[in-house]
Amino acid sequence: MNHQQSTQLIQKYAKNPWHHVHFGSDSPKIVNAIIEITKGSKAKYELDKDSGLLKLDRVLFSAVHYPANYGFIPQTYCDDKDPLDILVLCSVEIEPMCLVEARVIGVMHMVDQGEIDDKIIAVAKNDASYAGVNDLKDIPSHTTQEIQRFFEDYKKLEHKHVVVEEFKGKEDAYRIVEESIKLYEEKFLKNL
Prior knowledge:
Blueprint: H1 3-12, H2 17-20, E1 30-37, E2 43-47, E3 54-59, E4 69-73, E5 84-89, E6 99-112, E7 115-116, E8 119-124, H3 141-153, E9 162-169, H4 170-189
Parallel strand pairs: 5-8
Antiparallel strand pairs: 1-4, 1-6, 2-3, 4-5, 6-7, 6-8, 6-9
């Protein structure tokens, strides 16, 4: 994206974090993540695509809570018509609408109601507790099991079907980040 395209996009979607914030100059290895949901929350917050405000989508029906800080990578787009989701592991709960530099370590392939809904797994770049974590194999297997179980269970009482297919390492995650950036450019920049 060149400067002129970026300026036109910002004017069109003024101050909407999905469009106004860059995905990060070191992507796909380190990306900017915008947190929507704090680790431990039962509230499902989501960016309102039109206003750029954070809205309460619902309170989770099940007796579960988010196992990591959850949000999206700005200026990305996926087949589910949303920005690319990201889980950011961190030793603290990160406030909603906080911008976090996140080191990508893997991806969880998931299908939600028949649609591909991949979740990038990352660690907060500026958290010394995760300084040595560079790939999924560097985190305890219990962490990935907890993430998987959350996403398998969190919609059951809504009678919605979610399948966690597999976890893959950072190379697969990098590819997905790059594809979502390209899809975003095709969707939002082609008419500028």
